[in-house]
Amino acid sequence: MIDKKGILFVLSGPSGVGKGTVRKALFEKETDLQYSISITTRKPRNGETHGVDYFFHEKDEVENMIEHGELLEWAEYVGNYYGTPRRYVEQTLAEGKDVFLEIEVQGALQVKENFPEGVFIFLFPPSLDELKNRIVNRGTETEDLVRNRLLAAKEEIEMMEAYDYVVVNDEIDQAVKRIQAIVQSEHCKRERIAEEYKKALESDES
To answer: Which residue ranges are tagged as binding site for ATP?
Structure first.
């Protein structure tokens, strides 16, 4: 019996591309993927559960984790820390389960630095015009903020070469199917299977 380790899949892309929508649609289908639970220092909102929605921690605890390299990535928003706990990801992978992380581009690049064996998927808008429409149609941004978001998105698109796959988010269902195909493809990769066989043979000989 080959002891199969899980794979970390990281979905990322520019602001407004629809990462959260695609991730939600992916998890509404039958899947063996485990969603990566983030750590935060903000207080739980109504209905949120520790270990389900987030791991809720005190600020000093998270600062200690950052100091000791216990987060694959982290950022600070509005005075609160958010991050991906290395231990949770590694334990879940060791159990043979795939972990799925949906994150901003800067966070994904941090993960790649700390966990290069992950599979990095860049969600791409059908066009910059479409991306602008999506940002504008949120109806929550001022004109200046829309312009800044678009400039940031263009910069993030230039970082695409750091990723393994690119999925165009023209239709949500199609984007989900492409991600599912990437997951299957990664499990069939010769290098991955050869590595698992090698470990199995070594343990058999000892």
So the answer is: 13-20
